[in-house]
Design goal:
Blueprint: H1 10-19, H2 24-31, H3 35-56, H4 69-77, H5 83-92, H6 99-106, E1 128-139, E2 145-155, E3 161-166, H7 171-185, E4 191-194, E5 201-204, E6 210-212, H8 214-223, E7 226-229, H9 239-251, H10 260-275, H11 287-290, E8 307-313, E9 319-322, E10 325-328, E11 337-343, E12 347-352, E13 355-361, E14 369-370, H12 383-388
Parallel strand pairs: 1-4, 4-7, 10-14
Antiparallel strand pairs: 1-2, 2-3, 5-6, 8-11, 9-10, 11-12, 12-13
Helix pairs in contact: 1-3, 2-3
Protein name: Integrase catalytic region
Pfam families: Mu-transpos_C_2, rve
Family: Belongs to the transposase IS21/IS408/IS1162 family.
Length: about 400
């Protein structure tokens, strides 16, 4: 590190900040050196410290970590690989050592992770936001493997993050989360970039033509943003949000939670007290501070009321299938195609020819049956046989 080694303990200052959790990129920015120089300073500082300890016959480095090693191993086995997060957790338990010892202990225990370079696209304030979903498996209280989905939205300029866990990756839940995100940010970006999930995109030819789901187009028109989809098999163009999904996995997940509401309370605290106040590795600023310069469009006076609709054919047992559950309709509609409409209030309507022919409450879970009393009336004698024929 050239002359920096003789500038009044500059290396000691770098090492102390690094052990406190400051990243190499941030150290390079603060001290005006490139990252290779910072790494060289850290390595030489460690070598000198090891030599001093060896000459004094001290115990090997890492003794302060000894009582916490089992805990660190347990967290890593659960998928927590972020050293800064584990440092925060063990310091709450009384650990007084630095992060260097912790990182050296964790290094041989980490799985081999390969990463591809991602081309970055920087945006003007208020210009773009990016959304994505990530599947987060867990085991419930009965030991059954379940999956919950993290919806993440990032403002591309400030890197301000919104995250919400939803129980299903269907259109209704995605648009509910997107509406919540816009209300959280207090405004609307001009463009929202997404992947090609079937809840939003019908087809994408990769040449600029996207066939959008009508409900998503209507939602975008109401809020005044332009929907944009990344090219098929090129999700790296959405890198600003792909990295936060990984960040959520590393820095927040896994956690113990009672239900979806409890999980979202926890992630909201983490979002506000950790994710959006950290020094971002790319912008070198806190997202909450950079957010003040965003230029978002105003929200509509009233929120968009959501419903999800689709066509279904009535089966011979007077039922239609909707999201793995069955709902009954009157016998006279057997064989006909009907419109099923699910409202965010939890009400489900089945329509034919513009008329509501059955109403239900949306069933929780899967493979259940809901019966409308109107469907219990027996058809005229011989009707079912003739219908089946």
């Amino acid at each position: 590190m050239g002359g920096a080694r003789h500038e009044g303990g500059r290396e000691d200052g770098i090492r102390q900040l690094y052990e406190a959790g400051v990243s190499i990129s941030e150290l390079a920015r603060r001290f005006g050196y490139d990252r290779k120089t910072i790494r060289s300073a850290l390595n030489s500082s460690v070598e000198e410290k090891q030599g001093e300890r060896a000459s004094r016959g001290e115990r090997k480095k890492g003794s302060k970590l000894e009582p916490y090693k089992d805990y660190v191993k347990q967290r890593m086995q659960l998928g927590v690989l972020n050293a800064v997060r584990i440092l925060r957790e063990i310091r709450e338990q009384g650990y007084t050592g630095g992060i260097t010892v912790l990182r050296e202990f964790m290094k041989p225990l980490r799985p081999v992770v390969s990463a591809k370079a991602t081309e970055r696209y920087e945006s003007d304030p208020g210009e773009q936001a990016q959304i994505d979903l990530g599947a987060f498996p867990y085991y419930d209280s009965h030991g059954q493997r379940r999956t919950i989905w993290a919806f993440a939205m990032v403002l591309a300029y400030s890197r301000m993050l919104y995250v919400e866990f939803i129980k299903a990756a269907d259109q209704l839940h995605i648009l509910q989360a997107l509406r919540n995100a816009l209300e959280f940010f207090g405004g609307v970006p001009r463009v929202i970039l997404s992947d090609n999930c079937s809840s939003l995109v019908v087809a994408n030819d990769g040449q600029g033509h996207v066939d959008w789901q009508p409900a998503y187009l209507d939602f975008a028109k109401f809020y005044g943003f332009v929907p944009k989809a990344c090219r098929p098999r090129r999700s790296q163009t959405k890198g600003k949000v792909e990295r936060p999904i990984r960040y959520i996995r590393d820095n927040f997940w896994p956690v113990a939670f009672v239900d979806e509401a409890d999980l979202n309370r926890q992630v909201a605290w983490w979002r506000d007290h950790v994710a959006n106040v950290r020094i971002h590795g790319t912008t070198h600023e806190q997202p909450i501070v950079r957010f003040q310069a965003e230029k978002l469009q105003p929200l509509p006076a009233t929120p968009y009321m959501l419903a999800c609709a689709g066509l279904r054919k009535v089966m011979s047992d007077c039922r239609v299938s909707w999201n793995t559950n069955l709902y009954t309709v009157p016998w006279s509609y057997v064989g006909h195609t009907v419109l099923v409409r699910e409202f965010e209030s939890g009400r489900l309507q089945i329509e034919y020819g513009g008329q509501v022919i059955a109403e239900h409450r949306v069933l929780p879970g899967k493979h259940q049956i809901s019966t409308d009393p109107r469907a219990l009336q027996e058809p005229p004698s011989g009707h079912r046989e003739s219908s089946a024929g």
